[in-house]
């Protein structure tokens, strides 16, 4: 075989390999764009849901939400979050009856209580970082619920002592575990429009007095 023919074959092979690489890279870039857009879309379209269908939530979805919650960052990786999954109708009804802001709990097929474990929290002034840690886990849980086609609403407990004490008594929560919130979850029976909360006037640059980008 002539040298020119060999070179032509090698050139053709190289062009095929290059074409395949371009296609793969393009697909990867497209996948990344879709992934990024999907994440932003989930964040921007999540709303608080307070009315639910009479339909149970699958166990795999419950686990997915809890896995997402535990993927949140924590101070010094302490992971002081703890979760109570409630499915018993009588407990959900009791929560609904004892907390005015949680009337929707009676219709929810489940609720998750996000708590902080003081034994797992940092010592000293850093103890209250558990609140930030559990809040980050809560937001992850809410976003995961929305991405799974579910609805949820964050109902605050801590730091109001009366609410903390009442829920601890109802759920037999130990002294060193603090309930941060209750999240009723289920398939939505309503479709509220997401709120546009964008407000550039609340942004400062470099220093508090810096208001221009």
Evaluate the radius of gyration.
Answer: 25 Å
Element-by-element helix/strand order? HHEHEHEEHE
Poorly predicted runs of 5 or more residues: 29-34
Total count of helical runs of at least 4 residues: 5
Outline, from the CA principal axes? Answer: globular
Class by helix and strand content? alpha+beta
How many strands in all? 5
Helix content: 40-55%
The overall average pLDDT, rounded, is 89
Give the terminus-to-terminus CA distance.
Answer: 66 Å
Give the amount of beta strand, in percent: 5-15%
Task: Describe it.
With 213 residues, the chain is α+β, with helices and mostly antiparallel strands. Helices cover 44% and strands 13% of the residues. It contains 5 helices and 5 strands. Strands 1, 2, 3, 4 and 5 form a 5-stranded antiparallel beta sheet that branches. Helix 2 packs antiparallel against helix 4. It is globular and about 75 Å long.
Give the arrangement of secondary structure elements.
Elements: H1 3-45, H2 59-69, E1 81-86, H3 89-98, E2 110-117, H4 129-147, E3 151-152, E4 155-156, H5 161-171, E5 177-186
Antiparallel strand pairs: 1-2, 2-5, 3-5, 4-5
Keywords:
alpha+beta; about 210 residues; globular; 5 strands; five-stranded antiparallel beta sheet
Short description:
This protein has about 210 residues and is of the alpha+beta class. It is built from 5 helices and 5 strands, in the order ααβαβαββαβ.
